[in-house]
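Ticket #4471: complex job returned nothing on first submit. Input attached below:
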Amino acid sequence: MHVLLVDDETELVSTVAERLSFRGIDADWVTSGREALRLIGEKEYDIAILDVRMPGMSGLELAREIRSIRPGLAIIFLTGHGSQADFDEGVSQAGEEYYLTKPIDIEVLVGKMKEVLG
Amino acid sequence: MSFLERIKVPFWDHRERVAGAEGQQYIFRNKWKMLAAGICLLTLVPLGASTLFFYQNSREQAVRELLQETRVFAADTALDVYMFLKQYIMVLQVIGTMYGRDQLVESALLAQIFASMAGTDDAFIHLDVLGAEGHVLASRCIDTHCRRHRAARWIDDLHEENFSMGHIVSEGGTRYLFVRVRIADRDGSFFYLRGLLPTGAISGFLDQLELEDIVDVFIVDSSNRLLTESAYFGASGDRAVMPEDRDLPTAIMVEHPETGDGRVLFVGADYIGRTAMKLGLVVSERNLEKFRGRIRRYIFGLVALSTVFLLLVVFTLVTYVVQKLYQADLRRREYLDQVARSDKLASIGRLAAGVAHEINNPLAIINEKAGLLQDLLRYDDRYREDERLLKITDDIIAAVQRAGTITHRLLGFARKMDTSVLAMDVEHVVREVVSFVRKEAEYKDITIAIDVAEDVPEIISDRGKLQQILLNLINNAIAAMDRGGRLEIRVRNIPGEQGVVLSVSDNGCGISEENQKKVFEPFFSTRTRDGGTGLGLAITYGLVRDLRGSMELESVVGEGTTFTITLPYEIEAEEE
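Support reply: We reran it on our side without changes. The output follows.
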């Protein structure tokens, strides 16, 4: 399983990536939407895990871009700082159904990834 | 508890600070007094004026009543006098019928009869026997003036078929009354008997008629010359002041003939029978006072009753109205307190939400780092069995989860501050908020102008938040101005901008350019000394953003400040 993690918090995203690697999941991480789009153009991924709130390009905008270039790529959102409201405002409006709230439980994340990939 | 304590209305003891006055005042009590005094004045002045009018007219009314009474007295008394004189006619009729002409002409009989009647004050002083043609057949007299009497002018005031009566004026000017009867003799012829009476004969009778109300009774001839003595108009022969003959029986008011000081007498008169002689009587002015007293008592009784009734109605009504005002004022304060409380709660909620957002990020990092540490331990053979280290990382993760739960709760609390979104009239909201602060503005002598363009439509937004926004801005504006300032609230429709623009302008101290950048930051305040928390504008800014609006600030130091808020026509309700 090849995963791309996108979050503006370097400490957070790098740690999650490392933890996934312990569970046999190969994870790349970037801190902006632009870098994410570049990597997706270069590599094949099974799942993209995106933070909703990011400076510059938000997670939702990034998701739209990704879908236009890689329609089959599964996406899981990490909603802003654990607030249900943020998800209500943005993610649900965008018609997304997979999300997790921060702080995340790594096992829950892995479970969700498996669920997404069927 | 005294009676007054029991009926005391709640507003009576209410005190508060009043615009433009030192110290606390009983504002509702004062309102009550002012209203009560005003309405009392409005109702009692006309009542007093009409009372005064009727009081002034009471004399005229009393005069009318007394004249009427005097007229009745005169008519009654004239009838009494007529009946009295008729007694003499009857006496002569008895004598004439009993003795006949022939016997009476014999001087001895006439003298005998005359002598038997003489000796009393009211007896005839002269008796004549007259033939059918009126010539004297025999005559008896109490003194030696018989001839003179006969020579006098006999004035037949009344000439009935069987009798006549009248008066004569003798040579010396002395006046007498006479009666004459026509008597049918036994042989079918007839003759006359005539008797002369001194006016004194009737005076005694008249004296008896003088009662409490009637102070003088007298008889006058057709030319109003006195036949009997009068207490007011003089002796026999003097002229009395009498009403016009054509009006009799009647009464008139005349000036007192002796005092000449404006005092009056009431003179009543009527004819005595159908003679030309008239009876006059006088009722004193004292009776007038008696009548006036009665009328005044009636008027004052009525006025006292009306006043008591009016005062009762006025006091009850005024108390009711002021009580309603007081209750409305209480409701307004309660509402204002409620708004202030919810504003405070909203501030706390927003603060909590801000803190939660900020803490969540480091929490997430701690969580991931602790998780990584745990992974490192678990996947490393050296530490896999070290329960103590694994437990430590578990505890860290558990503590982070706990902190996460708290921040979630805080965010939930902040979300509950959000209220319903409804259609509303912006002008109505503006006026409502202004009504809350009007007292404070009045206290500082600040004019508030509201200018709402006609084309401003209803907007769909959060009423509570808009109220808080306006309340904060208006309170800031009032705080920024000195006495006599001017606050202007304008509302405009900007179709191009798809929204409504509200501006709150003051001509207060203004905000320096340096501070303009900071005013929306939390905890920035220039009013820390008088209780400013520095959160007002930060919260306001947050509220405007909640309403999907924008806020701008223009300010010139010394000239004033304008906050301009643009709100969309419609925002969507947030889901709980």
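Chain B has eleven helices and 19 strands. Closing as resolved unless it happens again.
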